Amino acid sequence: MSDFKYKGYCSKLLRVNLTSQTASEEPLNESDVERFIGGRGLGAKILFDEVKEGVEPLSPENKLIITTGPLTGTRVPTSTNRFVITTKSPLTGIYGFSVSGGAFGLELKKAGYDGLVIEGKANKPTYLQIEDGELHFRDAGWLWGIPVFEATRLLRETLGYDYRTIMIGPSGEKLVKIAGIISDDRRASARCGVGAVMGSKLLKAVAVKGSKEYTFADPAKFDEALKEAFKNIGIQPGPWKEFRQTGTQSGPIKNNAWGILPTANWRESVFDKAAEISYPLLRERFVVKDTGCNQCPIRCTKLTLVKDGPYAGAATDGPEYETIYAFGSACKIGDPRPIIAADMLCDDLGLDTMSTGLTIAWAMEALEKNAISKSELDGLNLRFGSDEGLLNAIKKMAYRDGALGKLLSDGVREAARKVGKGSESYAMHVKGLEIGGYDPRGSKGQGLVLAAGSRGGCHHAYGVASFVEIPQGTATSAKGKGLLVKGTLRVRVMIDSSPLCAFAASRVPPPLLARLISAATGMEMQLSDLERAADRIATLERAYNAREGVRREHDTLPDRLLKEAVPDGPNKGAVLTPEELELMKTELYEAMGWDTSTGIPKRSTLEALGLADVASDLARAGCL
Amino acid sequence: MSDFKYKGYCSKLLRVNLTSQTASEEPLNESDVERFIGGRGLGAKILFDEVKEGVEPLSPENKLIITTGPLTGTRVPTSTNRFVITTKSPLTGIYGFSVSGGAFGLELKKAGYDGLVIEGKANKPTYLQIEDGELHFRDAGWLWGIPVFEATRLLRETLGYDYRTIMIGPSGEKLVKIAGIISDDRRASARCGVGAVMGSKLLKAVAVKGSKEYTFADPAKFDEALKEAFKNIGIQPGPWKEFRQTGTQSGPIKNNAWGILPTANWRESVFDKAAEISYPLLRERFVVKDTGCNQCPIRCTKLTLVKDGPYAGAATDGPEYETIYAFGSACKIGDPRPIIAADMLCDDLGLDTMSTGLTIAWAMEALEKNAISKSELDGLNLRFGSDEGLLNAIKKMAYRDGALGKLLSDGVREAARKVGKGSESYAMHVKGLEIGGYDPRGSKGQGLVLAAGSRGGCHHAYGVASFVEIPQGTATSAKGKGLLVKGTLRVRVMIDSSPLCAFAASRVPPPLLARLISAATGMEMQLSDLERAADRIATLERAYNAREGVRREHDTLPDRLLKEAVPDGPNKGAVLTPEELELMKTELYEAMGWDTSTGIPKRSTLEALGLADVASDLARAGCL
After folding, report:
1. Where are the beta strands (DSSP E) in B63-179?
2. What is the pLDDT of residues B417-456, one digit of tens each?
3. Which end of chain B has fewer CB atoms < 10 Å from its terminal CB, N or C?
4. The domain at B444-506+526-620 falls in which architecture?
């Protein structure tokens, strides 16, 4: 696919109503772009304005908002295909978004749209076909029920392979709350149950094809900034060069050495088989090719293949670190083969690997503790380390099949709620979102990231503090982490809103990002403007959640992390006390201008950020 | 994909040598085209000339010959994408070919080639990339081991989706003798172990893209004939219209009613669950869409989907009748769900469904008879009716895994040879090729088709006599069947050489076929010319096998069919005696001008057909 030029960013949104089967184009508000950039920021803005408190996430009133950003479709490394899906999450009940690479974002841009806002609910399974300015509502009855890989092939074979698609699997169709959306090239917008929202609208897929070209506002300036970005990506030695070799697959061995590799549903923090499921052994034994998102120069994706045993033939782009952690150490599976197979299966059935793995890990512990019985798992041998149990559980969860499906398909919070018997204390989620794989008792800033993150217990939304505090040698201290996280979240919000891949943040640092966006769009953005936009977006996300009832006390962690000491490894005995967490929260709230007693953004902060309308709305909703 | 025009047929062949990594173009010999048409006929000619007796099928000396024909790429219904793969079969040791639809044949033509002759053996896994006149030998190390579906996606994602591919799965790589070759749109060139030959050359895939246009020799005349073909396809009522509804999936119920549905490894001839695995129930419960080969107006392919149970999510183009028979009635599996899953799995792993199913059915009987033990099947519960056993056996066969893989991966003849203990008598193959699903004791002409067919025990090469003799009411009689089969084989050879889909034979009857070929190529072909070409091709095939040692006595049937009476159903008590078979053979040989004592084509026949060179070669080889 060739690079294409575009002039400015402000083009238009396509608003599609599935209930009435109508659509309209609307110009993208220039000031919204300046204030919220695009991608994550723009999605948050539309969600805040249009999906009010109390909307049932799986009702027609919820919306699926798909946004690109000013750098989508440019050759800025990692930006080419980036897009963001925003919705009210059925898994958490709050603000939800999921970022993805692949090829869909670029195609949407080429079709002339900076975003899609999908509303209502079709009366039968439907897919959307968008070609440049043209939209068709198409019958998807024949695709309904077909897993992602085959359904994608069938759809593209029908429409032409110049279409790029996003699609749900059986799990999304069955409103499984940990279902994601998968693009034709196997990239996943996995988190927050975005697939269930798509399923609730009876929308199987969106297929897009475009031929539009854009011109940059200032091509010369853009090219100059672009060159710098490529130089950073291409030449700088050190960790970055290493990253091309390892991708995220060095995570297990690294986090294990740091003593923060969650193991056995977070009961332990080191895994004796970490090396087996990590770079370099993974690379030696399983990686067959370095690949990457469309046009991305990094090639951090590691195509893996299982060559023997019962999972022979399983091949997947990945698994990434978080998937290895979720199916590997968290489930105590030390053989990469079932992990690769599980990763592939989740993509095909449309499941979020992290939420799936953590929910299964919880069930393994609950079974061991007799909080649940084998019959509640349809007789499945769901013991720690059971690869067969893992794979069968995934299938059942995707289809809501049997007692197991009924219990586990909506994620770990819901499962623990149903079971009770103290199992909530080891249900590893925050606000309903299964948490990322960095033990905050050995990396305290990461505890704040997990506790306060805008979409729940996530390793992404506020950045990975571990990567800063561990090399700094400050990981065991809580003090100063509010400020540190303000820094990581700011960068992450900018990155997600441009949008770029999180992995590019160090090579396209904020000042360079500002130059790129300015040159591309013609909207003069200084670093300080970007930082202000990031604060604005993070505060808007916070406001969204506040309107849904989220308060300071909800920014917390699973009991296990606040009540148990690390039992093993380099951090043995380490704790993260509730007091430490509260200290970090206060620091962060203060740094962000959020009320330290409620966690709600202050009116003064909102107004200073130009969010007076948000303040009014929060006041209307009784939050201010 | 748009229609394209071509002038004449005689373009060129691309000869590729994998050993030396060189290639050359050679003009297609006009007289060969006139005499052997294309497709099957041309493949047989090249094979006869270039792959002599004694060549080990899996050695570099064997060749993989891929031919299109004069109607490939035209809009003649069912012809658009047809191509033929010819090789010396590792499964049978004799002449082998496999016909397929899909999209690859058209693309090969558009790239400027009427055929590919692939020779030698690469020194590492390789794929061929052909774009118009350009050929590249590419490293396929990273694709080696990846099953067909994912490897196809990865390859097309790499090269561009305008490439069309044929590919082997793990089974072809592991030289499994029942491995086929699968095209990007899931069409299979399955029979005769063509995939093992490709694997033996370390050739994972051929990817082709073309943009050439051709003009017809006589466009007006072609269009006129084409209109007639479309009229036949489109309007004629009766069985044809029904075929669009049923595809081949009405086979089980129909053959069951006729008492010729092979059941329990051919021990029985009716299946009490025939209706369950047949149209109309299949259509009601499992078919989600009528599809078809690229541009084919018939849409006989039935896309099926398993919606629940352990095989939920399995989706396949088909299964066709022969697959349903092989995995269904032959294995006594009356649930379509594992049959659909098995069909999909075989496509992904690259296995021939018929050979796979019949080999498993044999193993089921051998296990029941204690001719083999469970430990020889790695403890698998391979009982008649065991869907779990079926699916696990398929996986093991594809990978040559364990004792089971070692025993079954090379088809039923080889398995029975290893086991002995009388198991050869119920190994349902002829000359090593597992046989098609029409019981010849209830349809005697079909017995001749199976016994004498040029590629072994096949329902395709000589046509399906059952479809003529049963409606005629002559199915229980042997007399006259030599002439009947001469008729069905002639038509089939013409169809395969043009090539068209066998299902189009009744709608594009030979006189119309002659008009179409003439108008397309500018070579004036009368019906009599086509008939003579068909006789020439069939005789050449016969000569090839004669040179390999095939004689009259090899044209036989499994003991079960010649020694046991039909035990049940409408044909209960029916037998096909050796005498009847011999009578039919003599009739056929006489009709074809083949020596009735040896089965070898007579010198006079060869000379009359303009095959003096073949006669000389047979004389050299001591056959004449």
Report:
1. 64-67, 83-88, 95-100, 115-119, 126-131, 134-139, 164-167
2. 999 999 999 999 999 999 999 999 999 999 999 999 999 9
3. N
4. Orthogonal Bundle (1.10)
